[in-house]
Amino acid sequence: MRSLVFLVAAVVAFAQSDAPPANDLPQPYRTVRDWAQLPAGLKWAAVTAVEPSPDGSVYVIHRCFANSCAGRSEAPILKFDKSGKLLKSWGEGMFVFPHGACVDADGNLWVTDAQGRAGKGHQVFKFSPDGQVLMTLGKAGVAGEGPDTFNQPTDVVVAPNGDIFVADGHRETGNNRIVKFTKDGKFVKAWGKKGAGPGEFHEPHTIAIDSQGRLFVGDRVNNRIQIFDQQGRFLAEWRQFGRPSGIYITKDDTIYVADSESWGPDQPGWKKGIRIGSAKTGKVTAFIEDLESTTDEHSGAEGVGVDSEGNVYGAVVRRQMLEKHILK
C-alpha cells in the first residue's frame, strides 16, 4: 500500500511538472507590515525565517544589520507573542549568516548559519524556547562535506521521531546534499550532489516534512521541489510552485512555497510570491503575489511560516521586512 501511495504521488507530480505559471489564483489574505512591535531604535535587517511555535509565539530570524551578523552585537533571534509583542531575543555574537529555521514538536527552535568567518558559522543550533543552546551540529567556522561538517547549511527540519534533516548548500561554493542525523545528533547518512537529475541539487535552499513523513526539498536553482522518503529515496519532482526559497507544510498537508526569485529567461511568465496548495496532490490553489512580483531583483519572501489561525508570514530578505498575510 505504501508503495502504491508513492507511485500515485509520483504520477501526479509528473503530470504537473510542466504546468504553466500559477499566477492567476485566489488571494484570500490582506497584508500588514507593522505587526511585529520592535524595540525603539531597532530596525529589521534582512529577514530570513519566520517560525510559529505550538504555544502561539512566533520566532523571527534576521541578519542583525543589513545582510550579515558578522561582527555585530544585535540579536538575530526575536520571539514575539501572537499580538506581535516582543517577548525575548537572543543569539548575539553567535552567527555569521543566520538562514533557515524550524520549530520541533517540543517547541525547540533550530537555526542554521549559512556562512563561516573568524571561527564561527557553518553550523546548526538547537535552542530551548527560552534561548538555551541544547545542541550544536557542525564545526564552528569549518566548511566541509564530512559527517560532522557542513558547507553553508540553509535549512533544517525535525521528524516526529526526532530525526534531524539538514539542507546543506548555499550559492555556488556550498555543498549540494541532505544530511540526516539521529535525535541525539549522530550522523546517519547524506545524499545528493550538484546536478539537475533526480536526487541531485543546485542550492537545496529549504526543507519541510509532510504528514506521511516525506521530505520536500526546495531545489532552488533547478526551479523545483524534490520529494524523498527519509532514507533519501527520490519520489517525485514538482515545478508548479515556482522557484522555491521557502517551504512550510501544516498538519493538514497544506503546502506554502515562497518564491522570491522567479522572473527572467529561465522562468518566463512567472510572478514572485507565495503559492499555496496541497502536499498530497500537488495542486496549487492560491497565490499571494509579491508587491514587486515582476522585477528583475530578488524581491519576494524567502522564508514562510503559518500560525494556527492560518495567517501566513513572509520573511523578506532584500527589502528587509516581515510581512503578515491575514485571512480575510
Describe this structure in words.
This protein is mainly β and about 325 residues long. The chain has a single domain, classed as TolB, C-terminal domain (Neuraminidase, 6 Propeller), CATH 2.120.10.30. The chain contains one helix and 24 strands. The chain has one helix spanning about 1-15, and strands at about 30, 45-50, 60, 75-80, 85-90, 100-105, 110-115, 120-125, 135, 155-160, 165-170, 175-180, 185-190, 205-210, 215-220, 225-230, 235-240, 245-250, 255-260, 275-280, 285-290, 300-305, 310-315, 320-325. It has a four-stranded antiparallel β-sheet, with no helix packed on it. A four-stranded antiparallel β-sheet has the order 2-3-4-5, with no helix packed on it. Strands 6-7-8-9 form a four-stranded antiparallel β-sheet, with no helix packed on it. Strand 7 and strand 8 form a beta hairpin. The longest helix is centred in the first third of the chain and has 15 residues, at about 1-15. It is globular and about 45 Å long.
List keywords for this structure.
328 residues; mainly beta; 4-stranded antiparallel beta sheet; 24 strands; globular
